[in-house]
Amino acid sequence: MNSVVVVDKPAGLTSHDVVNRVRRILGQKSVGHLGTLDPAATGVLPVVTGSLTRLAQFYLHSEKCYEGVIRFGFATDTYDADGEATTPEVEVALDLEKLRALAMQFQGVIQQVPPPYSAKKVAGVRAYKLARKKQDVKLDPVEVEIKELAILSVEGNCCHFRAQVASGTYVRSVAHDLGEKMGCGAHLQSLRRTAVAEFKIEDAHTLEELMEAAGQGRLEELAVHPRKLLPHFPCVTATDENAAFIRSGRAVNLPELSRERLVKVFHGQRDLIAIGTRIAGTLFHPGIVFVQD
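Predicted structure:
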């Protein structure tokens, strides 16, 4: 089965755990995902199966959207609710407008220090491995982009927020840094990813729904329609003859296209057979061919 299914990841599972469960549900080994989500977080995790796992290279720098809750009053070593407190707990009285003004300082292209518990490397070693051993982790700031950080409401010592960020941005670091600016410490209490690239929470399915659909033989109903993938690439439908050439790795003329460099090539409505790369004029080479499982 070649497909992309948007899974609504539950809390407590790693992204790899979800991939393993999908492997068992589908009974196939070739399964991957399009963007790691922290174990404590929930929401959009696009899962790719079969030869469509080769699409992952096009989603390495995908924009992401989140909603969540930041708790003020103390910081933690993981920058989220799973960690141990690193500052004494203090009482806070949050002011919505003050918090919104502080949040504005995080919007745009900024320098951000990743959390100690992260996959960033220190002298070739993952930072989280050093942090688990209680070793001092010093990470350099990196340039990230936060396109939106909206404080939606405050309730007690917590605020609800919405964020839209470029790839590489740590929302946990945003929560931690907001707490430092407030002078009271803070951490990310909960996080839900609502979008990755073109994949939205409205299109997500639970693992239980996926299992039920597999048992009823209707998995295709839950999959994202292939023509909706990579929407910035135009679609072209190949003739039977061209489709055969493409599947064997041969270049073909696709005269109906204009000057796009990369295109999605279909045989019929749903069979995505290749990503074509323009060689010259209307001649395209099938740089990536998707073989039917």
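Summary: The longest strand covers residues 142-155.
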